[in-house]
Specification:
Elements: E1 12-15, H1 22-38, E2 46-50, H2 56-69, E3 74-77, H3 83-92, E4 97-101, E5 110-117, E6 121-122, H4 125-137, H5 146-151, E7 155-158, H6 161-169, E8 182-186, H7 192-202, E9 207-211, H8 228-231, H9 234-241, E10 246-250, E11 257-260, E12 266-267, H10 269-282, E13 290-293, H11 298-306, E14 311-314, H12 318-328, E15 332-335, E16 339-342, H13 351-365, H14 369-379, E17 385-392, H15 397-406, E18 417-420, E19 424-428, E20 434-439, E21 445-452, H16 455-487
Parallel strand pairs: 2-3, 2-4, 3-7, 8-9, 8-10, 13-14, 13-15
Antiparallel strand pairs: 1-5, 4-5, 5-6, 10-11, 11-12, 15-16, 17-21, 18-19, 19-20, 20-21
């Protein structure tokens, strides 16, 4: 039985050979073609990009075959690229849609498709819901061989790396060209190096040493995501032992950034977002609020308030970040998973861009990264413990979240308020403390985030929440069993 194709916060993702296969790729392409034709949008081409994942290049060709088969022109990248290049091209060429073959930071056996709409936005829920509906309605998939498509001027090779990097460079202070910065960059076998390597040369970074530059579709059998678990160890020790000023890493499709300071300590995405915002306001003279998602630290709120601005909180999903930035004319927007963007740049996260901003800040402030982060936290009296945990679900995740909305838990520390988002539940306590249950968009699991004054309080509440979710799963399982008995 065919599985339903679903789009989450980061597009469609599936296991290669299972959900991610030629049939589903071309179904999505035909559904998008049908939307284009129905809306008389055939006058603009579709930009198609791909990363280094297994079959991403083939998937791009298969997708183009269908778009071309519907007499719609495609621009297909000649080589693998970071996701943000496709977003920037969609915007710069005033196209209606762009498509990227990637599963972002997921394990090597996943691949997927991200769809971007006019101006380079991540497709919103309204559009992905429409796309899912059109996928289910597809009766015929039209294809056209690439050789014939080229003859009919429907398929064209494309590469905009030069203009993409020039745009990033336009945001960076040219005064940093005279520097002695030593950077160790971990490409994690992804495509981030395609942008960061030439950009480091353009910015005249004194030493930019690259690890894991080669193309490996298995990513060394590591998770290609610059988290603390991924970067602490050999990489962080190398940064410290060999005297680098900082370590930098990007995920497999180049939109998430990770930083290691000169002491070999991990700099969290929360700290990266807060310190870049602080730097842009205090040192570069920019003005404006900031937008974060509901899983991001109150450090961002405290920094914004100390500068006379406001931090706006939105649901998880970078499309919500950019929507909030547009609504509030915010300067910066970002999330705890390691992505950010800036007013005037693209409407999506970009590790090449955020990495360039971080390098500029480190050079201009001329202080160790650990000192910069310490002084920022001290300036706003930030002293919280943050944790992140994982809870696997054995029953239908949507049923669990529905049950929880109707039966909120009683915890040993009383919460003052509850915010219920689309796929997330956030418990608010005094002194800005909070606990978040975030339903994963790619697997049956909850991510549990907490930020408390004391580690002991966080540990107790996370344990209670895990026990509560286990009881909820039991209740949901009973309900499902009772329904099956009734049907029989």
């Amino acid at each position: 039985m065919a599985k339903k194709i679903q789009f989450g916060t980061g597009g469609f993702r599936g296991i290669i050979g299972d959900d991610f296969n030629k049939e589903n790729i071309q179904l999505i392409a035909q559904a998008l073609s049908n939307i284009i034709i129905e809306n008389h949008q055939e006058n603009r081409p579709i930009i198609i990009g791909f990363d280094n994942r297994f079959m991403s290049d083939y998937a791009a060709k298969w997708f183009a075959e269908v778009i071309n088969g519907n007499d719609i022109k495609t621009f297909v990248y000649t080589h693998s690229v970071p996701t943000p290049t496709v977003m920037s091209t969609t915007r710069d060429m005033c196209n209606y849609y762009g498509v990227m073959m990637t599963a972002s930071h997921n394990p090597y056996y996943f691949n997927g498709i991200k769809v971007f709409t006019k101006e380079g936005y991540d497709a919103d829920v309204a559009f992905t819901s429409l796309l899912e509906k059109k996928i289910a309605e597809v009766k015929e998939v039209k294809t056209l061989n690439e050789r014939i498509a080229r003859k009919k001027d429907l398929y064209e090779d494309y590469d905009n790396l030069g203009s993409y990097l020039s745009h990033i460079k336009s945001f960076i202070d040219p005064a940093i060209s005279k520097n002695k910065l030593r950077v160790l960059y971990n490409n994690m076998n992804g495509v981030g190096v395609i942008g960061l390597k030439p950009l480091a040369e353009k910015l005249h970074i004194h030493q930019f040493t690259i690890m894991n530059e080669d193309h490996d579709a298995f990513f060394g059998f590591n998770l290609p995501n610059p988290t603390k678990d991924a970067l602490m160890g050999e990489f962080s020790e190398t940064v410290y032992n060999q005297g680098y000023d900082l370590g930098m890493a990007t995920d497999s499709d180049g939109d998430r950034l990770g930083i290691i300071d000169e002491r070999g300590n991990y700099v969290s995405a929360n700290e990266i977002l807060a310190v870049i915002y602080w730097y842009l306001i205090t040192e570069r003279g920019y003005k404006g609020d900031i937008v974060k998602n509901c899983a991001t630290s109150v450090l961002v709120d405290m920094v914004a308030e100390s500068l006379g601005y406001k931090c706006h909180e939105v649901d998880v999903g970078f499309k919500n970040i950019t929507a909030g930035m547009k609504e509030f004319d915010a300067l910066l927007g970002g999330e705890s998973s390691g992505g950010l963007t800036m007013r005037g740049y693209i409407y999506g996260k970009d590790a090449t861009f955020s990495g360039a901003l971080f390098l500029e800040m480190a050079i201009k402030l001329n202080k160790p990264v650990s000192r910069i982060i310490y002084e920022l936290k001290r300036s706003v009296n930030y002293d919280y413990y943050c944790s992140e945990d994982f809870i696997t679900l054995d029953v239908d995740a949507q049923k669990v979240i529905k049950y929880m909305r109707e039966h909120l838990p009683t915890l040993s520390i009383k919460y003052d308020d509850v915010k219920i988002f689309n796929r997330n539940i956030k418990f608010l306590f005094n002194d800005r403390q909070w606990l978040l249950l975030r339903l994963s968009g790619t697997e049956p699991a909850f991510r549990v985030f907490s930020e408390f004054k004391y580690k002991e309080d966080s540990d107790v509440l996370v344990k209670e929440l895990k026990e509560y979710i286990e009881s909820v799963q039991n209740e949901v399982a009973k309900e499902m069993e009772n329904k099956e008995v009734t049907i029989l």
